[in-house]
């Protein structure tokens, strides 16, 4: 399967920002940043990365795929946990180096590997201190990721 | 002014993910990803980066500062356009390499340099095609950024 996309460096600044050709600007590691937002609430669930293959699979299958920088491999969200993300809408930003995903978070509704709905379960109080927001765990990670 | 934060590599995995010490994990370029969301609507306005100085200034002044990778300098959001972002709440994610900002977008309410509220004004239709979401321009960038 081809994973090639249009080349953003071949576009004028105006075409990149105002045009209708999708030309994602992958970084030096071949990745774009992906922000997943829960459809309905608009809560930000997680921020991760996609390589070209993950981006194409997400668009073509409607199920969200990322690229794991730590495991250095394609990662279908929910493949271990069952917490599949169904794509409702994808947007890109002015310079096309970020994709914003509106998703339906299936399974127990937990996007975070800690078992919480969102990875953003701590509030920055000051330059040294975090405060738990009180976000409930929807699953027990020790139970779900038994292989780890 | 010191811009040092706690060192995430000195923390255990459990402390990094579940603890209350803020230890932002800056990347090889000294940056964390910052996602700005509009308070109230929860719309994602923009995605940018912060170095330690930008992060500290944002926390200490309550006005959002980023680091411009293209201009290679600290960038107080709105310094040219007047579109200051007032910080309502900051969160970080499980591995502390992203900050999520809930902001009040002041000025004309446009976070994007194109004059639109959000940078995410185009919908990805398929692997080649974008569609304008119809987001209105709240200012004329040619008028606002006269120096450029």
Automatic annotation (TrEMBL), chains A, B:
It catalyses: 1-(5-phospho-beta-D-ribosyl)-ATP + H2O = 1-(5-phospho-beta-D-ribosyl)-5'-AMP + diphosphate + H(+); 1-(5-phospho-beta-D-ribosyl)-5'-AMP + H2O = 1-(5-phospho-beta-D-ribosyl)-5-[(5-phospho-beta-D-ribosylamino)methylideneamino]imidazole-4-carboxamide. Its cofactor is Zn(2+); Mg(2+). Keywords: Amino-acid biosynthesis, Cytoplasm, Histidine biosynthesis, Hydrolase, Magnesium, Metal-binding, Zinc. Homodimer. The keyword Ribosomal protein does not apply. Catalyzes the hydrolysis of the adenine ring of phosphoribosyl-AMP. GO terms for cellular component: cytoplasm. Residues 46-121 form the Phosphoribosyl-AMP cyclohydrolase domain. Pathway: Amino-acid biosynthesis; L-histidine biosynthesis; L-histidine from 5-phospho-alpha-D-ribose 1-diphosphate: step 2/9; Amino-acid biosynthesis; L-histidine biosynthesis; L-histidine from 5-phospho-alpha-D-ribose 1-diphosphate: step 3/9. Transmembrane segments: none annotated. It comes from Devosia insulae DS-56. Its EC number is 3.5.4.19. It comes from the Bacteria. Mg(2+) binds at residues 93, 95, 97. Binds 1 zinc ion per subunit. The keyword Endoplasmic reticulum does not apply. It is found in: Cytoplasm. Zn(2+) binds at residues 94, 112, 119. GO terms for molecular function: magnesium ion binding; phosphoribosyl-AMP cyclohydrolase activity; phosphoribosyl-ATP diphosphatase activity; zinc ion binding. One of its GO terms (biological process) is L-histidine biosynthetic process. This is Phosphoribosyl-AMP cyclohydrolase.
């Amino acid at each position: 399967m081809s994973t090639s996309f249009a080349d953003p460096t071949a576009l004028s600044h105006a075409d990149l920002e105002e045009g209708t050709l999708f030309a994602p600007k992958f970084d030096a590691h071949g990745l774009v940043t992906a922000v997943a937002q829960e459809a309905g609430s608009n809560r930000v669930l997680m921020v991760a990365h996609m390589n070209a293959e993950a981006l194409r699979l997400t668009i073509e299958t409607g199920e969200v795929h990322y690229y794991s920088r730590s495991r250095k491999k394609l990662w279908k969200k929910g493949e271990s946990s069952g917490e599949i993300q169904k794509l409702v809408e994808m947007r890109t930003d002015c310079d096309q180096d970020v994709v914003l995903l509106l998703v339906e978070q299936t399974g127990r509704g937990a996007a975070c590997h800690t078992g919480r709905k969102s990875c953003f379960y701590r509030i920055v109080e000051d330059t040294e201190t975090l405060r738990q927001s009180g976000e409930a765990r929807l699953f027990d990670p020790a139970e779900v990721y038994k292989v780890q």
